[in-house]
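Hey, resending since the last one bounced:
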Amino acid sequence: SEVFFSNSIEEDLSRRDFTINAMAYNTKSGLVDFFEGSSDIKKKIIRCVGNPDKRFNEDALRIIRAIRFSAKLDFDIEKKTMDSMFINSQNLRHVSVERINTELEKILKYNPLKIKLLSDMGVLEWLFFGYLPSDELLEIAGEVDFDDVSREYFDEKNESIVENIILDLKRALIFKDLCSEKLTILLKKMRYSNKKIANTVFIHSVVNDDRYDILLDKDECINRKKVLIKGILREANDILLAKCAIYSKFIEKYANPRYCFVLFNDIIDSGECFSISRLKISGKDIVDSKIAEGAHVGKILNELLDYVIHNPLENEKEILLNLSRKIKNI
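The structure tokens again:
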């Protein structure tokens, strides 16, 4: 309930969570390491400073922080610390969902398999409202390596954008066995932003849609696969999100998406139409030609897009104006 300051460096460091975070340095004394943090770093161990029960009762979030450090650094958690984590895990119920999610997202980023510890503790049972991701799904999410994916498949220069979308992808994979409606409800209760929810649910819908299994078949007709890819681009309304959704189908089957992304990039580079904005006709053209007005214009544009996605060479203004007249009369 209160913060007390101290003039003693040892007392200050004794309040820290783990030994690897309980060191200090200055030019006069050099490394100050009362709790053998440097030794634990060499041993690759996460260990509480002093009594672990006391540390975790000071702030139960430290339980998830221990898992996060283990995931990021690939360190083991020392037995007494781990035992105390299990004993005190239910105290996490008193920690805000927002604080828990901050740590959970970092575990998801570095090593999703470590989430299993929270399942073993019984934390996920209430945190995910009864949903428990299978070991297989956690393993699949763990196959998504940020550096490999970013370097090999995504040409987005902004690393933070790529990192966020890959987290959306990993989240969609671990929640794969939930239906879209329950996933949306769960993510809202876990206080995710609207954008994260929308991206996660979209990728989740693609990875669960059997229609897109065709993309994995190298012998399938190229034009048919291109139609499916353009359909995903249309629904995503975002090139990077669409690419992540397609990647989810391949990573789930441990397949290489390279040849599929060749088709994907060809669609983008050749300017094939997959959105209304890429049609060679606008709503204004339809109104000016006295074909339709109001809500009927949007309906016609969507039907034109359906047509052009299947017939990319027909994306010409006069062809689409003539087709608009036929659609109007149906």
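The mean pLDDT is 92.

Sorry for the duplicate.
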